[in-house]
Write a structure and sequence with these properties.
151 residues, mainly alpha, 2 domains, 0% strand, globular
Length: 151
Amino acid sequence: MKRAIEACMPTTIHRWCIWYITKKIPSKLNSYKGHVEIEQEMNHVVWNSHTKESFDRNWNDFLLKYGLVDNKWISDLYEDRHIWVLIYLDHHFWAGMRSTESSGSMHSFFNKFITRNNSLIQFLKQYDNCLRSREQRERENPMLQIFTLSY
């Protein structure tokens, strides 16, 4: 996909979806004890590192804490951090979209509120509930406001 995007749309910036990366943790790291804690810690490092230097320091601490220094998948993720870690993408304009805004994560989000059996009126009410829920989540986590559209 990367090569095709580079060939067909050379000025396009391609980034990876954090949501899909974290969904792979159980299968990629299932041989490690406590992969649930690993996922939580990795999310913490990615979302709460506010500079590239702090990300690198936090990532190294994360690797040491969970014995992941020699893990190829984790090493490859680090090498490609410039296309999925938020702090490395902050110099590009994203029109408010985060790399977690995949169709899968958006479906997961909307499925909590909307079903295919909703009438148009129910759909509009539930859509409004979705936006309120999202806005509340952004208020609780100010870093999300930087990367999402205001409603």
